[in-house]
Amino acid sequence: AGLPLVGMVATLRRFGGLPHRCQRVAEIAGVSYVNDSKGTNIGATIAALNGMGQGRNILLIAGGQGKGADFAQLRPAVGSYCKLLVVLGEDAPKLQAALQDIAPVTLAGTMEEAVAVAAAGAAAGDVVLLSPACASFDMFSGYAHRGDVFSRAVAQLQEAGA
What we know:
6 strands
């Protein structure tokens, strides 16, 4: 393309990604917090887990309106990569039923509670990942609002010195 390789590489390294799409929002005590609120379907969540998983080091926050999805499709990725699944929203019971035999599952009533539960179970090197596999409209005005609430909850955790 006629552009210098060094300049392109430097620019790519500075690019933080798009909001709500596997966006790293913080690192607290060696734990990475990632906002993938745009992951509104099972395929997107599987891709996020496959891309970020390194053993069972992901604490996944998922749930919302599943739109009739078959959550059993998440089983291979959750079984491979998740040490904890925190579920919330309208279809939280369906997620729990589909996945509770392959990973520990905790129900949360709010995003703030979900972040707190995930943070409490996380250790240095882990990833707390919001990748809902569901639509957001049961609790939020859209995926961006859901992601913003997640990011604010993480910021509050950081301010509290967690």
